[in-house]
Amino acid sequence: MAAPRPPPPAPPLPPPPRLRRLRRRRRRRRRKFLLPGASAAVLLMLGVLHAKRMYDDKQLVERKEQGIEPEFSPDLKASFLRLLPLRSMSRVWGSLMEVEVPVFMRPAIYKAWARAFHSNLQEPALPLEEYPSLQAFFIRSLKEGSRPIDPDPNCLVSPVDGKVLRLGQLRGPGTMIEQVKGFSYPVSSLLGASSSLHDATEEDISGEPTEQNVPESSNAKSWWRVSVASPKLRDRTLLSPKRGIFYCVLYLHPGDYHRVHSPVDWSIFKRRHFSGNLFPTNERAVRTIRNLYVENERVVLEGQWKEGFVAIAAVGATNVGSIKLLIEPELRTNGPGSMILHSQPYDERVYEPEGTGMMVKKGQEVAGFNMGSTVVVVFEAPLSKAREDGTVSSDFGFCVKAGDRIRVGEAIGRWSRS
């Protein structure tokens, strides 16, 4: 006969109410401890990062005062930026910027922005109440006479309000523009492989006019083309063997006037639109991101002035994906379907009539940004005779140096004619 099963154990008695209250109190204390502890750790980390950035910026200022130039140094932040959807973020930001601000709030908001970014509120052409959105305020026009244009015919003026980051002369084959000490990028990558600057560079080196090389399809008149083969256009009648090629990089602060003006009287032959990334273009990004201006989305205007080649590259940045051309209002940048692969061909437009292009005057408005960004000007200017040591002295001289602030219409450089 089987032994009887033992009775099941009695369920444990519930803890007395006092003990339950004690346990709940302990759990709340534990949660309260963990939450402030995590918050304190995050705040401490942010504080350390902010302190390090302030220290680095202070060191940079001190080195500049000592004449020590900052060098290129990639960091982890530059790599992290590549993982972010900066183009989509910029489109969202652009949509927010277009939201209409209530009239009674406009002066307060725009004045707060002006204090934060040192904008001059005496210059806008309209009262603050008449700018319906932040975007309208950012791309504001100025009162007539706010930017007088230097009338000297032998000078090239600044196309924007901004800070001079780099400037210099381009020499030799495979000419490079210095992004920062320790890193440079090819000017051909910035302007495009089909830029006629390459012909001017070759002729400047050899002193011999190059043969004209025109694509077989050049007989077909077209004002629009998508450049895939990147043909070279050469016209020896427009080039002079006594020319130097110079560049100037100008950074627009978020509080600056955001419209782009013509630096000289010239004919714009072509426009190229390069789709790309939208990395920030501030000084920290310039020191840490390789090929910054080449990788970012940009619009290049190229043509001729009385001294030869000239081009303006308007480079987009984070939250500045929209670059507008007054001479081509239908152009759209940072589109949702744009690809950012380097293999993607850029889009090129040739302005009619081909060979004459679109005439613009010095100081004439040609483009604009939605916020701050960067403009690179590349141009030919007169050179004097070669020296005995083999170097070439220039009649052209810059009126500014790296670190200077400059405004639209002020001379970047000038030269004298004998």
From TrEMBL:
<dbReference type="InterPro" id="IPR003817">
    <property type="entry name" value="PS_Dcarbxylase"/>
</dbReference>
<keyword id="KW-1133">Transmembrane helix</keyword>
<feature type="modified residue" description="Pyruvic acid (Ser); by autocatalysis">
    <location>
        <position position="373"/>
    </location>
</feature>
<dbReference type="GO" id="GO:0005743">
    <property type="term" value="C:mitochondrial inner membrane"/>
</dbReference>
<keyword id="KW-0812">Transmembrane</keyword>
<feature type="site" description="Cleavage (non-hydrolytic); by autocatalysis">
    <location>
        <begin position="372"/>
        <end position="373"/>
    </location>
</feature>
<feature type="compositionally biased region" description="Polar residues">
    <location>
        <begin position="209"/>
        <end position="218"/>
    </location>
</feature>
<keyword id="KW-0594">Phospholipid biosynthesis</keyword>
<comment type="similarity">
    <text>Belongs to the phosphatidylserine decarboxylase family. PSD-B subfamily. Eukaryotic type I sub-subfamily.</text>
</comment>
<comment type="subunit">
    <text>Heterodimer of a large membrane-associated beta subunit and a small pyruvoyl-containing alpha subunit.</text>
</comment>
<feature type="region of interest" description="Disordered">
    <location>
        <begin position="199"/>
        <end position="218"/>
    </location>
</feature>
<comment type="pathway">
    <text>Lipid metabolism.</text>
</comment>
<keyword id="KW-0456">Lyase</keyword>
<comment type="function">
    <text>Catalyzes the formation of phosphatidylethanolamine (PtdEtn) from phosphatidylserine (PtdSer). Plays a central role in phospholipid metabolism and in the interorganelle trafficking of phosphatidylserine.</text>
</comment>
<comment type="pathway">
    <text>Phospholipid metabolism; phosphatidylethanolamine biosynthesis; phosphatidylethanolamine from CDP-diacylglycerol: step 2/2.</text>
</comment>
<keyword id="KW-0999">Mitochondrion inner membrane</keyword>
<dbReference type="GO" id="GO:0006646">
    <property type="term" value="P:phosphatidylethanolamine biosynthetic process"/>
</dbReference>
<dbReference type="InterPro" id="IPR033177">
    <property type="entry name" value="PSD-B"/>
</dbReference>
<keyword id="KW-0670">Pyruvate</keyword>
<feature type="topological domain" description="Mitochondrial intermembrane">
    <location>
        <begin position="56"/>
        <end position="418"/>
    </location>
</feature>
<feature type="active site" description="Schiff-base intermediate with substrate; via pyruvic acid; for decarboxylase activity">
    <location>
        <position position="373"/>
    </location>
</feature>
<keyword id="KW-0496">Mitochondrion</keyword>
<keyword id="KW-0472">Membrane</keyword>
<dbReference type="GO" id="GO:0004609">
    <property type="term" value="F:phosphatidylserine decarboxylase activity"/>
</dbReference>
<keyword id="KW-0865">Zymogen</keyword>
<dbReference type="GO" id="GO:0016540">
    <property type="term" value="P:protein autoprocessing"/>
</dbReference>
<keyword id="KW-0210">Decarboxylase</keyword>
<keyword id="KW-0443">Lipid metabolism</keyword>
<feature type="active site" description="Charge relay system; for autoendoproteolytic cleavage activity">
    <location>
        <position position="261"/>
    </location>
</feature>
<keyword id="KW-1208">Phospholipid metabolism</keyword>
<feature type="topological domain" description="Mitochondrial matrix">
    <location>
        <begin position="1"/>
        <end position="36"/>
    </location>
</feature>
<protein>
    <recommendedName>
        <fullName>Phosphatidylserine decarboxylase proenzyme 1, mitochondrial</fullName>
        <ecNumber>4.1.1.65</ecNumber>
    </recommendedName>
</protein>
<feature type="active site" description="Charge relay system; for autoendoproteolytic cleavage activity">
    <location>
        <position position="161"/>
    </location>
</feature>
<dbReference type="InterPro" id="IPR033661">
    <property type="entry name" value="PSD_type1_euk"/>
</dbReference>
<dbReference type="Pfam" id="PF02666">
    <property type="entry name" value="PS_Dcarbxylase"/>
</dbReference>
<keyword id="KW-0444">Lipid biosynthesis</keyword>
<feature type="active site" description="Charge relay system; for autoendoproteolytic cleavage activity">
    <location>
        <position position="373"/>
    </location>
</feature>
